[in-house]
Amino acid sequence: MKYVSSSSDQTSPARSRLAGLDGIRGLAALFVVLHHSWLMSFPGFPAPVGPWWAAWLAYGHFAVVIFIVLSGFSLAVSPARNEWRINSLRRFAFRRAWRILPPYWPALLYSCIVAWTLVPQPGEGAPTLKSIVVHGLLLQDVFGSPSPNGAFWSIAVEAQLYLVFPLMLLIIRRWGASVMLSAVTLTVVLVGALAPIVRPVGELMRFTPQFAALFALGAVAAGIVVAADRWRALPWHWFSLAAAVPVALFIAIIGPEWTVKHFFWVDLSLGPAFGFLLAAVATGRPRSFVWLLDTRPVRSLGSFSYSLYLIHAPIVVSVHTLLIAPNTEPGVGQFLITLAVCVPLSVVAARLFAGVFELPFTRNRSVEALKQALLRRNNQPEQLAAAVPDSPAVTP
């Protein structure tokens, strides 16, 4: 599950922040935690298992679809305000590495330790040295190795999309957003159509090429921030609902087994709904939904959603395998206990993790800024002590 992070390469945080985006990010990450709790409680996925009222939790993959569209959108907001330009490729690359690697590498180490000492991820062996190298270099979709964390696969995909993002912007500047989106989407559709019959093309499916089209869609949707009023006034939220309902009904009717086998096409079908949704939220509609997304708890969850995405899987797997499953009967009761224990534990652990490995890097966007923040923090107790006059000794 990519988790998607926000970006602001040319503008100040105050200007670039759009209400509601952090909330979407946080709820999507929470959905992934619920999905993995469901998977642990009802093995046999993608077979239709578990109670009917929890069937929607089988589709945690679609949270990654949201992350990818949102990633393209968030990264493109600042260039859209700057005539679709990135002022410095080196600065862009540094910002992306600064954003994703400081939490990712500690999460990789943590995941390996859990897999070595407690329990590996379902269907995976214990991580090897190759696992560390491959995952550390974000090449896990290129080279196979035992995965220490079931959520890491999407981080490599997103990092690779960063490499083509400047090219997407170049095409938008020269030929327009519709040309860029059409070119990327047609290429991806061609890959999907040829994959079953042309073996070399089929090898490309391991890179989830549909995410390139979704990422491009999010980037184009970011144009709403500089669009004319007549475009901003359109009912994007209703467009989103109209695009999502037919796909959702089809998924409900056809079931998870077919859907999982055809994620490529289903993801592409859902993309427009999420693109329209982001355009709606960026224009402040529907107001009640944007208000909910921007409430303090939801916005706060979004602020450390990347950490939640990175570290929740080892927590859910180890707690369920070692503590919950041996002491409960399989079924709904076990599932509810897993939710009650693993979800809050994952959220609390992620917030603590983020306080060390994520938030300092999002609040301080350079090495120098981080050093200054640490110096201020270290000097604060001395400054407070100097500001408070000595108190007289108190004897019992």
Can you tell me the overall shape? Answer: globular
The low-pLDDT segments are 1-14, 387-396
Oligomeric description of these chains:
single chain
Give the CA-CA distance, first to last residue: 59 Å
Rounded mean pLDDT is 90
- The radius of gyration is 22 Å
Structural class: mainly alpha
Strands, count: 0
Work out the strand percent: under 5%
- Helix and strand pattern: HHHHHHHHHHHHHHHHHHH
Main beta sheet strand tally, sense and closure? none
- Figure out the total of helices: 19
Helicity range: 55-70%
Summarize the structure.
The chain has 396 residues and is an all-alpha fold. Helix content is 70%, strand content 0%.
Q: Keywords for this structure?
A:
single chain; mainly alpha; 19 helices
Characterization of the model:
- The chain has helices spanning 13-16, 21-41, 61-81, 89-117, 129-136, 153-175, 177-194, 199-202, 210-221, 229-232, 236-254, 256-261, 263-282, 287-293, 296-303, 305-324, 332-357, 359-363, 367-387.
- Helix 2 runs parallel beside helix 16 (305-324) and helix 3 crosses helix 9.
- 70% of the residues lie in helices and 0% in strands.
- The chain has 19 helices and no strands.
- With 396 residues, it is an all-alpha fold.
- 41% of the residues are buried.
- The chain is globular and about 60 Å long.
- The protein has a domain at 13-107 and 218-384.
